Amino acid sequence: MHRLLDLPARAPSLRLLADESAKVLDGIVRVFDGLMLLVDAPDRPSSDHRGSRPSVPDWLPALVNAARAFVIIVAVELFWIATAWPNGASTFVFSAIVLLLLSPKGDLAYAGSIAFALGVAGAVIVAAIIKFAVLPAFETFPAFCLAIGLYLVPAGFALACSRQPAAIAVFTAISVNVMPLVAPTNQMSYDTTQFYNSALAIAAGCIIAPVAFRLLPPLSPALRTRRLLILTLRDLRRRAIVLPLARAEEWEGLMYGRLAVLPDQAEPLQRAQLFAALSVGSEIIQLRHLAARAGAAVELDAALAAFAQGNSAIAIARLRQLDRQLASAPDAGADEATALRARARILVICEALSEHASYFDGGAPA
Question: What distance in Å separates the CA atoms of residue 20 and residue 7, rounded to the nearest whole number?
Fold first, then answer.
């Protein structure tokens, strides 16, 4: 890394290639740091990388999930109070659990809740067979273990081998809900009314979840993608003109989070725009530090002000003017290297602004 950073270069493109290659090696060092944590090597020296603060890519999906859970839980509680249902607490608990577990799944939440409800229906049937057809014939504890093991072991094996989300939801419901329904005790009770009342409460709690996801669906992939692009452009323009600057790690951490939650249905152009915003933001942060050292902060502020106003053409023209100014400066040792690095950053920014001018000028496409 130090060899690449100290590599003599006479052209901005060569300087950029060397610096970005050093960044790749820096990423490999971070991978080694992660492996070092996994193998627990306390005698290894730790790197001096500073982590970034956690950030939320977009608050709106979380607020929608919270509103859905609040409305449904309040409705179930009111129904429980109004009917004085003895098993209403179970309905309340299971509806809350399913909603909170599946809400972060986004588009897969509704299908997952349907699969979970089907698994609960299967668990009710299996629990009824075990409790009323199998257990009355046994009296010892080993026999009881054998009776439930003949079901739980295959169900657990099927869950461990499942790879599809729907299969995981079904086998999870079947594995988890059987024992609460059987409700084994030292003195077993075979009250069918109590059993089906409990089963109805659990099933109702699991059936409420798909209804909730249907009535209050998650944000559509198109809307989530558009919001991520708009929020990114807003943050990028703010960071271009607001001082003091954020660290590059903070900007990259925010953008990596948004790239991670970008829906699979997003268009390739939208992904390219998000990557371009990531690159431009990182380069602006580095260019500001370099321009201050090279004595070109005023010219850079003028270019970034045009960018923040949504005028990429003027921003590119001012950046190229700044590039010519840095290129014509007399050689000054370390200052020459700083100017060359600044010109490399300008090269990247101008290319990204030219290629995605419609996005940087106006925002996300309709």
Answer: 12
From residue 208, give the alpha-carbon distance in Å to each of 99, 123, 161. 9, 17, 28
In terms of DSSP H, where are the helices of 50-191?
59-83, 88-102, 109-129, 141-161, 165-182
Using alpha carbons, list the distances in angstroms from residue 343 to 11, 178, 223, 296.
Answer: 9, 67, 37, 11
Same domain, 114 and 81: yes
Q: CA end-to-end span of the chain, whole Å?
A: 43
Neighbours of 256 (CB within 10 A): 13
**Of the candidate ranges 90-94, 227-231, 275-279, the one whose mean pLDDT is the lowest:** 90-94
What pLDDT, in 10s, does the model give residues 48-103? 555 556 678 889 998 999 999 999 999 988 988 888 888 888 888 888 888 888 88
| pTM, two decimal places | 0.77
Q: Is the pLDDT of residue 333 over 60?
A: no
CA distance 119 to 113: 10
Q: Is 346 exposed, middle or buried (0-12, 13-18, 19+ CB in 10 A)?
A: buried
Shared-domain flag, residues 238 and 191: no
User: Token pair for residue 126?
Assistant: 């299996």
**Same structural domain, 248 and 322:** yes
CB 57 within 8 A of CB 211: no
User: To the nearest whole percent, how much of the chain has pLDDT over 70?
Assistant: 92
Structural domain of residue 347, as residue ranges?
Answer: 222-362
Within this chain, do residues 248 and 309 fall inside the same structural domain, yes or no?
yes
Tokens of 175: 């594995």
Same domain, 90 and 180: yes
